[in-house]
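Bug report

Summary: structure tokens for TolC family protein differ between web form and batch submission.
Environment: batch mode, default settings.
Steps: 1) Submit the sequence below via batch. 2) Compare with the web form result.

Sequence submitted:
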Amino acid sequence: MRTIFSIVTALGALLLGASPLVAQEQAAAQGQGVTLTLAEVEERARLSPELRAQQSARQDHARWQAYRADRAWWPKIEAQTLIAPVPANADPSNLDENLDEILSLNLGPLFRQSARVIVPVYTFGRVSIARELAALGVDVAEIEAEEALAEHLLRARQAYFGRQLAEAFGALLSEGETLVNGALTEMEDARDFGEASFSTEDFRRLQIFKAEFDTMMLDNARLRDLSDSALRYLIDEDGSIRVPPLDPERVDAPLASLEAVQRYAGEHRRDLQLLAQGLRARELQLDLARRDYWPNIFAAVDFGFAWSTEAPALQRVCRRAAPGEPCIDVDTLWTRPYSNPLNSLTLGVGVGLRWQFDLAQQRGKVGESQAKLAELRAQADRARGAVALEVEQAWRTAADARARVEIEARRLDAARRWRNQFGLQNELSDANMRDALDPLRAYYEAQAAHLEAAHAYLAARARLARVVGAPSLEALAGLPD
């Protein structure tokens, strides 16, 4: 019973990490509620709408990035629309007259539209690298979704096991409370009628024992409420929930060897898969940085037109009697310009190279990519060793917890025999109170320790399944050595 508080604290941390509002939720529904097995809890946890929506959005983001990369060869259209005022009778050779027209607000509109269609022809591998990076992003999003689901399932299992422990503790404490309350009532009645055959010390010891029971029941009520709130939140259940009490006799599931568990983790651990994807992404980014030394080859089509209500001023005509002679009658000879720049139509087709000559920056980008790749490779080597250590620690915790279940079972058997030796299965006698309290305390402490050991083994197996990447607890038992 001494570790109930630690279990309650862990469940409280689980609730605070899940949502700040969950701790305030209370079961409003009355009645029996729905009874759930662990398999049903896991199935409901997998169908969590909030979790599915979050992961779906993340995967959609990666898919849209892949969508963009797959269509990098599509033509790109650039268009520009311009509306501007222009002076009437503008004379390109006489700025003063143009200023006079502008100052007198003798203006007209000019509309100009241009468009360019650019089609990539060859990018020296940039597009193919971008496609592969986008495909890696989709794979990473799927792995992260599986990782988030595994963490969600771990929390659901922890909450379920905590609720089972609370149910088992509740039954145990109710049994002990009935026994102790009955003995206290009889002793108080005997004192009231002057028929007490027990010492005051024995009476106080039983009262202290009763206070300990009350404290345990208070802790267990908190454990039950927190685990119930966590479970309802994680499986999105608004009504009350019932679970079967924890049965230590049914938790002794086999545990695969350390070598088998480590081998399984090396093949299924999701963060190792993410690490492999990250290494490939760094290699592609380095390759992409090197491609910046090369140009992009493209084909382009340019189209443009302009139109205005105004027209340029008439231009003077210089007529000479002979070459080299001065112009004659310059004030009377005028004509329209050969072309009107305010009204135009253009069309062009070509193939071009787009270069970026920034060698220092390009070399720096390549160096940065090389350094990041080297760093990630070093981290990968360390991560594999860290994963092996983490798996070994989780496996050792589970193995020790399983051994503790057997030890506490022997302790409980001895405590039960000691209790039965005094005939204390159902009632306490004031005549043997001094001798009865020690075996009674030992029995209930052994019961509690046995339940806690069983709960610790279940929690350790759930944690081990999470560490190695197993989809279920049963997968840990069937691993080949």
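Above is the batch result. After comparison, the two runs are identical; trailing whitespace caused the diff. The longest strand covers residues 107-122. The longest helix spans residues 126-192.
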